[in-house]
DNA sequence: CGGCGGTACACGTATGTACGAGTTGAGGAG
DNA sequence: CTCCTCAACTCGTACATACGTGTACCGCCG
């Protein structure tokens, strides 16, 4: 292994030693001296190079990990994080013309990009709407909803979890209650049930993942998530579905087209 | 100060001690036992309560800080993070009808929500387009652009930095080169110059902030940013502006309306 | 030649100690 | 009463040490 050239510490600087070390390694990553997947020198080597205690090195590495620049692998080393291929979500991905191909949006897109899509952890229940969902769907607190939750994977890697809520009044007894909602997905079913879709509203937040989300999406440390809530409206102006999704932020770019009118 | 009730450690668990401690405090926050702004017990108190070393406590607190749940203040203590009021960015915020009021989008929105908007760090230069900007604007590598950078603040708190790029061929010698671009902002100027705006495309990413961004936006640890790149197209289909903005993710919710057509 | 185990190496967890530096409030000096 | 000082408390940084646990590799043994 070629030796990574790292500067020495600046003893006159009032910047904390561990920050200086983090700066050195960050610079090496930013300048490409350390490329994606490369191994950062081991804690022992860094201790030796800088002549500092292990805790100091670990603090420095912790900073970088918190910035999402590196990941530590137990027993192997610390590596520059590699970024997965990015999925671009266009604002027309739910357009009817796509749905009429008979495939759900996720499947069609992923195959189009050469990936192998899959869906797991499908669970369907009927329950009382939460306050937030009830408000978005224009329901009262006693109303029941069908809850469809699932997880999307590309080439076996989880990238997104989604939970849909549909008023039970609409979906009860239909294929929407089945794990396989049929060709075109639940939006196709809703249209067959007479709810011609008019528009969607998407609300996007970004935050650090909860513990469950780290597990479900196998997120690396320092990776935030998109939290996207989509509400579907039919041509009568009625909200017919709310979909609450959490996406690994480094697997996605969201793209929207807005009219200037 | 009322004493925070925290469970004891489970010595039979194989979960690391510092994680168990982080779990306890996280639970207290999630259940509202610790509210926003509340002080987490000091490191010394936690050491005493759990009978562990200080490093173990600090590890636990580090976990929570990385999750964006707490902030440490030197000399004061560790506090449950409070969230700033959220700005909702609607997808029609650049609609012409708003622009015709004579105010830039940011000013109008913020005043509407009762906040005091301000803009600083305005800098305008003319330079060669970067590869990325050139591609978005449909320019070649030698073409010049006007670069307008600024920072937006609400009640003195920075919330967003923005850099606009306009082809020099369009903007040179116009008010777009002036720090005060006039009523309605640069979009109004572009329309006066004959570039009637047709639509925008916004690309949204989320990631952890760079060091400069932490400083410019005074970001708390564990807060990701939205990175939004908007391209404006005129009715001839020509890209006339690219705006690259970085926003504190906990100050914003982005909202878009998409047609189902 | 193939599997098994040992060993070196990597990071993970935890203890203990020491000193620095920012904040706060009580108490004394003026 | 006011102002200042100082002590106490807080988190920040850094040292040294020990043992646990996962990974990779190589050589021995069957």
Average pLDDT reading of chain A: 90
So how many helices of chain A? Answer: 9
Pair with the biggest interface: A-B, 43 and 42 residues
Extended strand count of chain A: 11
Tell me, what's the shape of chain A?
elongated
Work out the strand percent of chain A.
25-35%
Can you summarize the main beta sheet of chain A?
A: 6 strands, antiparallel
Order of helices and strands of chain A: HEHHEEEHHEHEEHHEHEEE
Oligomeric state of this protein: homodimer
Uncertain stretches of 5 or more adjacent residues of chain A: none
Strand order of the largest sheet of chain A: 5-6-7-10-9-8
Termini Cα gap of chain A? 59 Å
How much helical structure, as a percent, in the residues of chain A?
25-40%
Radius of gyration of chain A: 24 Å
Description:
2 copies of one chain form a homodimer. Chain A is of the alpha+beta class and 261 residues long. Chain A is built from 9 helices and 11 strands. The first copy, chain A, has helices at 17-30, 43-50, 54-66, 96-99, 105-112, 131-137, 168-171, 185-192, 211-216; strands spanning 39-40, 70-73, 77-80, 87-89, 117-128, 144-154, 157-167, 197-207, 225-234, 239-248, 252-259. In chain A, helix 1 packs across helix 3 and helix 2 packs across helix 3 (54-66). Chain A is elongated and about 70 Å long. At the A-B interface, helix 3, strand 8, strand 9 and strand 11 of A face helix 3, strand 8, strand 9 and strand 11 of B. Strand 8 (197-207) of chain A pairs antiparallel with strand 11 of chain B. The structure holds a DNA duplex (30 and 30 nucleotides).
